[in-house]
Amino acid sequence: MRLSPAITELMRALRTLPGVGPKSAQRMAFQILERQRDAGLQLAQALSEAIERVGHCSVCRTLTESEICELCANEGRRQAGLLCIVETPADVLAIEQTGQYQGCYFVLMGHLSPLDGIGPEDIGLDKLAERLANESVAEIILATNPTIEGEATAHYIAELARQHSIQTSRIAHGVPVGGELEYVDQATLGHAFSGRKRIDFDAF
Amino acid sequence: MRLSPAITELMRALRTLPGVGPKSAQRMAFQILERQRDAGLQLAQALSEAIERVGHCSVCRTLTESEICELCANEGRRQAGLLCIVETPADVLAIEQTGQYQGCYFVLMGHLSPLDGIGPEDIGLDKLAERLANESVAEIILATNPTIEGEATAHYIAELARQHSIQTSRIAHGVPVGGELEYVDQATLGHAFSGRKRIDFDAF
Ligand SMILES: [Zn+2]
Ligand SMILES: [Zn+2]
């Protein structure tokens, strides 16, 4: 049997969402049509409006519907002179949730990937070079993902920072807090050893 | 930090979908805005169109954008004289996927639930009574869920069928095919025993 075309098309469109398979799409479509039509219309409107309004911050490239995002517009953060480089807006959110960082961000919206034809300008590094030349940045913190592409991207940016004589650091990789050594992968455990810190007995 | 309002509203709207929590909604919103804007617009349109066009079949009450759904319009099925009663359109799909049934359906779009104020007319039983009076139905198959409400609803409809002298059956409950007894719940195992079938040795 075939469902009517509008239902079939709704299920197909729902499957484009990450993590939504055929079964979930069917459940979503029926739930909307059976008892959540108002919520469904609101979702349609939220999608259209977000897609129409949300662009990129002209300073840090993150997603925002303003010309300059809230964090870039924050005078206190700008004066801190710290610039954290991340791959995605979700990374900004994750770091903000730690409450540990009070500086600015630069969001690559991806990473270098020569095989996919993604070069420095595709991830805004021309814009970043311009900022490093014109702003007073005390330290760059490289928070790209601990993947091959993320490491290569971090390496490239570290080189760029060196040309502008800016101090640069990479976030620490190691055993997750609360994690058990037994379940930590080899690469992470390797990082945990090579990045070990001398215990400062005076601090106890 | 606050995300811009259009992104926040999109995440809120996505969370109204079944099975979507805050974390999934965030991932969906970012994925749409970062690299699936066309798919996002298509989803918005599919939602609006389905909600506008899809109503209920005037014969069986299932979701359809036609006046009469494909299954009710099928002459061969109508002549079979079988009417299967289910709670939802998803149940119709599930039964159709077995390929075992070639009759018609009546979709309650719910079940009797006096505590929630859901009575016979809310699940279309007035319409069903009318059909039983005017159509030639040889057998009613009750396929409501094996829940308290589903059983009560099945019972109510069985009574209605008796008034019209129509033969009525309930789908069998028991141990799922491929299931292990050890992992089957008590109620199901109880049904499996009370519904046991005598082995017909002639059939071997
Ligand atoms: Zn910004
Ligand atoms: Zn129908």
Characterize the structure shown.
2 copies of one chain form a homodimer. The first copy, chain A, is of the alpha/beta class. Chain A folds into 2 domains: 8-53, RecR Domain 1 (Helicase, Ruva Protein, domain 3, Orthogonal Bundle), CATH 1.10.8.420; 58-170, Dna Topoisomerase Vi A Subunit, Chain: A, domain 2, CATH 3.40.1360.10. In chain A, 45% of the residues lie in helices and 10% in strands. Chain A has 8 helices and 6 strands. Chain A has helices at 5-14, 22-35, 37-53, 75-80, 89-98, 125-134, 148-163, 186-194; strands at residues 55-56, 63-64, 82-86, 104-107, 139-142, 167-170. In chain A, the strands form 2 sheets. The first copy, chain A, has a 4-stranded parallel sheet. The first copy, chain A, has a two-stranded antiparallel sheet with strand order 1-2. In chain A, helix 1 crosses helix 2 (22-35). The longest helix of chain A has 17 residues, at 37-53. Chain A is globular. The interface between A and B is large, with 57 and 57 residues. Bound molecules: zinc ion (ZN) (2 copies).
Topology summary:
2 copies of one chain form a homodimer.
Chain A: H1 5-14, H2 22-35, H3 37-53, E1 55-56, E2 63-64, H4 75-80, E3 82-86, H5 89-98, E4 104-107, H6 125-134, E5 139-142, H7 148-163, E6 167-170, H8 186-194
Parallel strand pairs in A: 3-4, 3-5, 5-6
Antiparallel strand pairs in A: 1-2
Function (chains A, B): May play a role in DNA repair. It seems to be involved in an RecBC-independent recombinational process of DNA repair. It may act with RecF and RecO.
Protein name (chains A, B): Recombination protein RecR
Family (chains A, B): Belongs to the RecR family.
